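Bug #77: duplicate submission created two jobs. Keeping one. Sequence:
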Amino acid sequence: METDILIIGAGLTGLNAAREIHEAAPALRVLVIDAGGGASSEIMGFSAPVNPPDSAEILRSDTLASGGGYSDTALVRILADRAEPEMRRLETMGIRFDRTPDGHYSMVNAVGTSFPRVVHSGTTTGKQAIALLKTDVLKTRIVRLALGTQGIAGVWTEHGEFIRARAVILAGGGFAGLWKFSTWSKNLRGAPAVLALEAGAELRDLQFVQFEPTVTVYPANLAGFPVITTVLHEGAELLNRHGKSLLKPDEKVPRKRELAERILREIRAGNGWEHGGIRYDFSKVDEAAFAAKYPEYHAKFKRISPAFNKLWFEVKPGAHTTLGGIRIAPDCSTCIPGLFAAGEAAGGLHGRDRLGGNAGLEVFVFGRLAGESAARYAASHGLCAPQNSFAHQPEPEEFFRQTADLLDRRFDPLSTPTDFEAGFAEAQNLPECAHKKLVCALFRMALENSLPAKR
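Kept job's structure:
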């Protein structure tokens, strides 16, 4: 089998890349591989600085501040500059973003931002975009990248089939599914990073993992469900077992990293509730306003507590977004000619902490950019034969079980250099498989960089 451009990942990053290629270079053949996962459908909205006095420059400044000095400034500028054009493009495709009665965009106030700037269409922006960008996909698992004398040659599937391609885009998400307590599917175990690492590409910033601060531990049937933090701006409270709020009355809601750390410290101080979390209390949230802004969440939560003023969850931080990944240039290229990466598979954009709303924006901006760059590369490079053959060895589930236990014990928002050192030692004793290199690299980078953020 052969194609011109092969995209690994059928979420919004991959779908945006495919759409860009079809529009910019319709003669090129594109094959999209469904790698599983499914994070894109959960995107509620994304950053769009379109309500004055907000601006692209303020979005850039907020993003850099959240990144703590570790973000690639060129990637941040691309994200901020393309935010409004991406929103306008989606409007022309048919997505109707919520507006206020006076005609302004109805913005969600994400934590850590200077202004409310998350545009949304109800809470289903991601689902709507997937429907608009839907394309044919091949369901299989890619287990190795094939290299030729000049760069990428194609991929090997789990069934031993070789697919030849001029260019490959890695768009299959991050690796937060490696943790036992995570918001994401176990399909999101870092396959793109492992493929890149095995092929000789560089990884960066693996130590920066964003833990969603308010992930449900009770009710049990919602375990692992992330309860939106934006409601902290709208009357919701985080309460310890003594009924004391974790936030001061006039305190600005902190960025997610700080909030996760605060919740975890409170739990470890013995102030958690009976299921091991902090109570996320909705009793002071205006139900009518909540229902208008978050209709799908309102319907879901009413099934839990018909009396909305008695609604609460027990929550604690859970692994959510991996901010590091494959090192890319501003055009999404890697150090391997013909190999591109975008979305959560790539590193360098978010730095130490991701700004609320930017993950949703990233899939549109860099998905399209990766498609644009891959199309340009494929138009000027031919197909080549692979230098390497490959016999796939399935990775043992015991490895993933041991890894999940290790990460839950040794890698969380309060982990210390001692934890990372012990974790690195334990990782080296994990069963041998391709993913072992990723887990070892994660702990090694965390240990090497376990110092305060750059100033």
